Amino acid sequence: MSLNLSNHDIIIRPVITEKSSSLMELNKYTFEVHKSANKIQIRKAVEAVFNVQVQSVNTLNVKGKMRRRGMAKGYTRSWKKAIVQLKPDQRIEFFEGASIGG
Predict the structure, then answer these.
(1) Helices (H), 1-60
(2) Rounded Cα distance, 66 and 62, in Å
(3) Distance, CA of 66 to CA of 77 (rounded, Å)
(4) Residue 13: what pLDDT?
(5) Buried b vs exposed e over 24-54: b needs ≥16 C-beta within 10 Å?
(6) What pLDDT is recorded for position 12?
(7) In a structure prediction context, what are the per-residue pLDDT tens digits for the chain, which is 102 residues long?
């Protein structure tokens, strides 16, 4: 079943953590993506939005964690993460100035 999502609907936001920052040195970039987007749609969206060539896409579903506030229990939302590896000569300049802490 194919969804009619625009490229900006597929890529929700970049995930910038310490681990994803270390992956950037290996030319891998991490994004939160639409839960029902597949690898082909993610590849096309990243290539169109950032004007780069994608070598591979790995996806994983992140389960929500249980949180408590007093006696009330609930879960954070679950989401889908995509780790996109670019071809060796490609870069996404959007991430170049990103640093953790400061």
Answers:
(1) 7-10, 18-24, 39-50
(2) 13
(3) 10
(4) 94
(5) beebbbbbebbeebeeebbbebbbebbebeb
(6) 95
(7) 556 889 989 999 999 999 999 999 999 999 999 999 999 999 999 999 999 999 999 999 999 999 999 999 999 999 999 999 999 999 988 766 555 554
Cα dihedral sign for 15, 101, 50, 22? Answer: negative
Q: Which of 52, 26, 23, 15 is nearest to 44 (CA)?
A: 52
Tokens 């079943």 -> residue: 1
pTM: 0.85
Measured CA distances, 17 to 12, 40, 48, 74, 79 (Å): 16, 25, 24, 24, 16
**Cα 79 from Cα 32, distance rounded (Å):** 7
CA pair distance 95, 4, nearest whole angstrom = 28
Contact between residue 100 and residue 18 where contact means Cβ atoms under 8 Å apart: yes
